[in-house]
Specification:
Elements lengths: L14 H6 L3 H11 L3 H5 L3 E10 L2 E10 L3 E8 L2 E7 L4 E4 L9 E2 L2 H10 L15 E10 L2 E9 L5 E7 L5 E10 L2 E15 L2 E11 L2 E12 L17
Antiparallel strand pairs: 1-2, 1-13, 2-3, 3-4, 4-5, 5-6, 7-8, 8-9, 9-10, 10-11, 11-12, 12-13
Length: 242
C-alpha cells in the first residue's frame, strides 16, 4: 500500500519539448523527494497501517503489517470472522472463512501474484532498475481535473501498471492495471487522496478502488513505523504448507 496530488514547474508551450525536459528518472526522484526522501524511506524497517474498508454496504476494520524487504500481512474483520492474507517472502497464503474453511491455505496463483506485488515494501518506483522493473513516460493526462504524468511501469514479472503522478507535487494520484480472474480480464483502478504527513513521510489516507463493477473505499486512520514485527506473523502456520 504506497504514498501518492499538487504548481507546474514549466509553462509548456510545445508538448514534446516539455516532456523531453522531464526524464523518467527525474520524475521518480521528484516523486520520492515529495513523499519524504530516499533516505527517510530506507530508514523504515516495518510499517503498520490501521483503518476501515467500506464495501458493498459493509464496513470492516483492517490492519496491514509490512516488513522489509517483502513481507506482508493484511487482516480484516467482518461479521465476527477474521480474513487473513499474507506473504512471508516465499509463500502466499490466506485464511478465508467465507469460502468454507478457517484453516490457512496457499493462495491460488492469481491472488498470490497480487499480494507478492503488494509486498514490495518501497513499491515499484523506488530502486526500480535494481528490481528489474521498466518505466516509460507516456505523456500527460487529465485525471479528474488534475494534470498528471502517466508512467507505464512494467514489473520484472511482466505485469503492467499505469501510475499517474500529479504534475504539481509529483504525488501518485491514480494507478490502473489489468488483472485476470477466473480466466477473465478485469480492469482495476485505485485513486489516492487525503495526503497527510506522518513522521516526515507524506502518505495517502484515502484510497478508492474500482475492480470491474465493484467499488471499495479504504480510510487510513493510523500509520506506525518501525514497530516490532516478528517474522512468524507472516509465515504460514506449520502443517499447512502443502
Amino acid at each position: 500500500m504506497r504514498p501518492r496530488s499538487f504548481i507546474a514547474i514549466f509553462a509548456l508551450l510545445i508538448l514534446p519539448a516539455g516532456l523531453s525536459a522531464q526524464t523518467v528518472d527525474e520524475l521518480i526522484q521528484k516523486h520520492i523527494q515529495a513523499t519524504g526522501g530516499y533516505e527517510k524511506w530506507k530508514s523504515l524497517k516495518t510499517m503498520k497501517i490501521s483503518g476501515t474498508i467500506q464495501m458493498q454496504g459493509m464496513e470492516m476494520p483492517f490492519i496491514r503489517y509490512s516488513k522489509r524487504p517483502n513481507k506482508l500481512r493484511i487482516e480484516a474483520t467482518m461479521q465476527g470472522q477474521t480474513i487473513v492474507q499474507a506473504y512471508d517472502g516465499k509463500t502466499a497464503w490466506w485464511i478465508f472463512p467465507f469460502m468454507g474453511s478457517t484453516e490457512p491455505q496457499r493462495m491460488p496463483k492469481e491472488q498470490a501474484e497480487d499480494i507478492i506485488e503488494q509486498a514490495d515494501f518501497d513499491g515499484p518506483l523506488i530502486d526500480y532498475k535494481k528490481k528489474g522493473n521498466k518505466i516509460e513516460l507516456l505523456g500527460k493526462e487529465d485525471v479528474e481535473g488534475t494534470e498528471a504524468y502517466k508512467l507505464k511501469v512494467t514489473l520484472k514479472n511482466g505485469q503492467v501498471i499505469y501510475t499517474y503522478l500529479d504534475s504539481e507535487y509529483y504525488l501518485e494520484i491514480k494507478q490502473t492495471a489489468k488483472r485476470v480472474r477466473q480466466g477473465n480480464e478485469l480492469a482495476v483502478s485505485s485513486v489516492f487522496g487525503d495526503y497527510k504527513e506522518v513522521d516526515g513521510l507524506l502518505l495517502p489516507h484515502s484510497i478508492f478502488i474500482q475492480a470491474g463493477p465493484q467499488t471499495t473505499n479504504l480510510t487510513i486512520e493510523k500509520v506506525e513505523f518501525n514497530v516490532d514485527l516478528d517474522d512468524d506473523i507472516f509465515a504460514m502456520p506449520a502443517g499447512n504448507e502443502k
